[in-house]
Amino acid sequence: MSIAWIGLGNMGGPMAANLVRAGHHVTGFDLNPAALEAAAAAGIEVAASVAEAVLSAEIVFTMLPKGEHVRSVLQGPEGILASVAPGTLIVDSSTIDIDSARQFHEQVSAAGFRFLDAPVSGGVFGAVAGTLTFMIGGADDDLAQARPFLDVMAGRVFHTGGAGNGQAAKIVNNMMLGITLAATCEGAVLAERLGLDAATFRTLASSSSGDSWPLRTWYPVPGVVETAAVNRDFEGGFATVLMHKDLSLALAAGESTHTPLDFAIAAHGRMAALIEAGYGDKDCSILVRQVDGTIQI
Question: Which domains, and CATH codes, for the chain?
Answer without folding.
Answer: 2-162 (3.40.50.720), 168-291 (1.10.1040.10)
